[in-house]
Amino acid sequence: MRNYMLECSGLTKTYLSTDPPTQVLHGIDLSVEEGEFLVIMGASGSGKSTLLYSISGMDRPTSGSVHLEGHDVTSLDDAAMSKVRLTRMGFVFQQAYFLSNLNIRDNVLLPALKANPKQSETVVSRVDALLDRFGIGHIKHHGITEVSGGQLQRASICRALAGEPAIVFADEPTGALNSSMTAEVMDALTGVHDDGRTIVMVTHDPACAARADRVVYLRDGLLVDSRSLGRWTRSAAVQREDDVLAWLRSLGF
Ligand SMILES: Nc1ncnc2c1ncn2[C@@H]1O[C@H](COP(=O)(O)OP(=O)(O)O)[C@@H](O)[C@H]1O
Ligand SMILES: [Mg+2]
Q: Is the model's pLDDT at 52 over the cut of 80?
């Protein structure tokens, strides 16, 4: 039997705030294995962010179920869901959403300290190790406007990992970066994957998608195709990107 980190079944999402209501997800079945790096692609407006938010409890699906580590998280109340998010999930967004009055290190520490107030020493030493590992230990006392976009995103990855999550969700983490910063951030996420962490990432960028074990394609709120790439290696990077590009073209991306 396979060990699924995440299993979604029959997920739908309808936004009721619009008139008429907007159905964005039309029944998504998706399973992610423990340790898998899954990428979600699709045209702008196809529902990628909505799917990621519905899977990760940032928003509630209208129907369907999500199991994380075998537990049904869709039936949890808001407080229990928040706890699961804080302790089992890490998030990386296009923007870091750091507080401007705190330095890099304190921003990275904040959620993990909130989740583990009694283990602050452990959390601080874990965060310092993460900052060093991702090459930003030397700027941890800098303000958030004093570092590059790539450094900020590597700090967001450290923040996402600080609570030792089971799964990391990333929504266009390189969407606001130039190509060299994108490579920095993808190297960091590849390292996270190498540690055995499960990752679900939305991206527009075929080169970023080529890092994944598997890519799924969302069209108008339905998963219409998927492509297994196997494990990423640097020597196969160009060939994998070509493979993803050809696949995307066949889907009309
Ligand atoms: N809070 C919301 N209320 C109403 N419609 C929304 C909301 N969020 C997203 N949508 C609509 O849902 C569709 C999918 O959006 P989104 O999930 O952000 O797509 P993607 O991330 O693929 O670009 C879009 O048509 C968008 O306008
Ligand atoms: Mg989006």
A: yes
